[in-house]
Amino acid sequence: MAVKIRLQRHGSKKRPFYFIVVANSTAPRDGKFIEKLGTYNPLTVPATVRLSRERSLHWLQKGAEPTNTCRRILSFKGVLYLKHLMRGVTLNLFDEKTAWEKFESWNAEHEGLVASREETHRKHKQEKRHAAMSESVRKVQEKQIASAEADLAEGNEEAAEGETAAEGEASAEA
Predict the structure, then answer these.
(1) pLDDT, tens digit (0-9, with 9 covering 90-100), for 67-109
(2) In sequence order, what DSSP letters do the residues of 105-116 get, joined into one string?
(3) What is the spatial distance between Cα 65 and Cα 15, in angstroms, rounded to a whole number?
(4) Contact 45, 106 (CB under 8 A)
(5) Engineered SS bond to 5: which of 66, 92, 96, 170, CB 3.0-4.6 Å?
(6) Which has the closest alpha carbon to 81: 59, 100, 65?
(7) Contacts of 30 (CB under 8 A, 6+ apart)
(8) What's the first-to-final CA gap in the chain, in angstroms?
(9) Which pLDDT tens digit goes with each residue over 27-55?
(10) What does pTM read for this prediction?
């Protein structure tokens, strides 16, 4: 029996939400599974991934094969790197404490990178919103200026007509 780590789709139409599960390779995509490892929401920026590293590592060490997407998710969360470090521990290249120190330093750097991506996205979104608002304000101001100029021109025309009418009356009296 081949065991796979794969995604199980949930959510409504065009709004996907996935469970990361360990399942028999012959089981249907959304069918029976052995264990739920976490969740994956691709609609957020960046995508939200909640994953049990310990259980994922446990299943990888037992020989579970991740699908391509799950491999990317596990790599992103550091589970594959942790598996690599634990392999070094079993080969006596370094001790487990050193492996965890390496993983913690990698994880701290990775979390900083993710936080900077989130901040960059947030700033970009805010700048885009500000640009759209300033553009709409500019258009409204242009319309107001145009209408004010039209009113002024209309007022000037009425004043000019009034002056010609007054001159006409004055010449008729004389």
Answers:
(1) 999 999 999 999 999 999 999 998 989 899 999 999 999 999 9
(2) HHHHHHHHHHHH
(3) 27
(4) no
(5) 66
(6) 100
(7) 8, 9, 10
(8) 117
(9) 998 889 999 999 999 998 788 999 999 99
(10) 0.70
